[in-house]
Amino acid sequence: MSGRSPDTFPRLLLHQAAVRADQPAVREKDLGIWQTWTWGQVADEVRALACGLAEIGFKRGDNLAIIGDNRPRLYWAMAAAQCLGGVPVPMYQDAVAQELLFVLQDAEIKFAIVEDQEQVDKLLEVKEHCPQLAHILYDEPRGMRHYNQHFLHGLDEVQQMGRTHMRNHPEFLDAEIAQGSPDDVAIMLYTSGTTGKPKGVCQTHAAFITAAQSGVDFDSLGPQDDILSYLPMAWVGDHLFSYGQAMVAGFTINCPESGDTVMTDLREIGPTYYFAPPRVFENLLTQVMIRMEDASAIKRGMFQYFMEVARRCGSEILDRRADVALSDRVLYALGNLCVYGPLRNVLGMSRIRVAYTAGAAIGPDLFRFYRSIGINLKQLYGSTETCAAVCLQPDGEIKFDSVGKPVPGVEVKIADNGEVLVRSAAMLKGYYKRPDATAESIDPEGYFRTGDAGFFDGDGHLKIIDRAKDVGKMASGAIYAPNYIENKLKFFSHIKEAVAFGDRREMVCAFINIDMGSVGNWAERRNIAYSGYTDLAQREEVYQLICECVEKANAELSHDAMLCDSQVHRFLILHKELDPDDDELTRTRKVRRGFIAEKYQVLIDALYSGKSSQFIETQVKFEDGRSGKVSADLRIMEAKTFPSQAAKKAA
């Protein structure tokens, strides 16, 4: 190993174990207690697991499925597979068995490491369709006592086999690691499949290490930093932050006890570095607003007053702008003492030095809220195919409607049709078994076609409008960008999801999903009885509440020169929540617009035909695998629209 630079993830791991052997690498909360592993201990655990995998037949070129919540041994499984020249293939832990089946078959999975009995049961359900799946290993033994299939192994057992293997073949693993090349595929991440079947994106060690190093240098990350690792391991964002950057910078990743305890664990850890998609930031803000509605009149008044101060000058103070009035600085300091500081503490964000959001566009108002209370939230732009590293927002150059400037070493240009094109060292090697799709996604000059529409402003910041395929035109010729409209609507705490329609039409209409927690709390305080989501969603009072939100969004859109014609004229509240299990959302909760338009065509027709209501019956899947039907007479409501204020300003 001497003389070799740490240019693969296994070599990076050994490097960290050598230079900071006793510093914390991973923490996990188990049974209410935080357990810690140092970098030296992690390297030992990975060695044992890698040798155990080799003992049961895993070899160079094999693909290893990894399924479960964020768990230390699942991260170590990735490194173990890479030590042997194999490729980890993380999958979404909430995917149903049939969704897993596609990836298991497509990636030709022979070995799988899963978290617990639930994931084992899913694989057993589809195993007859995966004859190549030879071994299933599980981390949590609880509930597995009576499973006696010969191909099932506990990770404790496999690691013990590995330690025996290490004693008998002490040179084996180092020789395997030495064979690794930076150009070897390090990870296969499947795309979300918004427009079709997911594709396996093959990324090399060199590509992901380049992306990770860029982010580490950009934000001066180091061993002193902490991150909470709670997002799906199958998502490129988690792989970049919780695996790639941790390996490069040597900081500590913290795995929560469960999905239900993330907020508690966030407050206990107090990370310095944080990443979440817009949906998480929306949910946090919703919880804050619910709590404030339940607070006393004095607390509500104080909150509203100081939030107005924060909106006026908070972001400028965070950016250290010199043009903030002394009176505002004094008021903000008082607000920090009474409101912003306690609020950051409740959110678990008191220690955060850098926070990022990506995965979808974030509403400017939501973005401003977090920055105004002193959280250094920034946007990044990227995709699975670019290792999530295309643009970042430099400190002091934050724009609420941009995704920042290209990362050093990344070339970005705009095609004639408005599509964003990217070329860098952190690009996919190819789609697994899909040379046709690979050739289609990369142009002759080596630029990756992102599928996003955008433009550069005068300061060199990239602005993303929408997915290029979704950007259309109204019948009047005005630009129509559904995702932009939807994000305006989703800023309101009562709206969980929105789907806009309007391409080649005279007006924009929308489907709305209410946020059950926020609207339920609002209804209970007004003594409005309801029996469930469907009943609550169709209440007259709820329609009036949502109409106020839609009209506020319309008022904001009226000030946008490009999208003032995209105000929502008519809307309805869906009788069920959009759900990944019903194929309406991807596992990363992106709207599958085409599927929804086809599934609910009768509702779209009702919106545009002037009807005041429409009956619909929909089949749904329950978590236990059963199916059922939900039906309702959906009301359709008109929303007030506003004349273009942008045109008035220009005049």
Question: Could you describe the 3D structure shown?
Answer:
The termini are far apart. Helix 2 (39-55) crosses helix 6 (155-168), helix 8 (205-218) crosses helix 9 and helix 11 runs parallel beside helix 17. The chain is globular and about 80 Å long. With 651 residues, the protein is an alpha/beta fold. The protein has a 5-stranded parallel beta sheet, sandwiched between helices.
Properties at a glance:
651 residues; alpha/beta; Rossmann fold; GMP Synthetase, Chain A, domain 3; five-stranded parallel β-sheet; five-stranded mixed β-sheet; 22 helices; 28 strands; 40% helix
Which structural class is indicated by helix and strand composition? Answer: alpha/beta
Strand content: 15-25%
Helix content: 25-40%
Distance between the termini: 70 Å
Helical region count? 22
Provide the low-confidence segments as ranges. none
The third-level CATH topology of the domain at 9-275 is: Rossmann fold
Morphology: globular
CATH architectural designation of the domain at 9-275? 3-Layer(aba) Sandwich
Major β-sheet, in short?
A: 5 strands, parallel
Q: Taking strands numbered 1, 2, ... along the chain, how are they ordered across the largest sheet?
A: 4-3-5-6-7
CATH fourth-tier homologous superfamily of the domain at 9-275: ANL, N-terminal domain
Give me the count of strands: 28
CATH class of the domain at 9-275: Alpha Beta
Mean pLDDT: 92
Radius of gyration: 25 Å
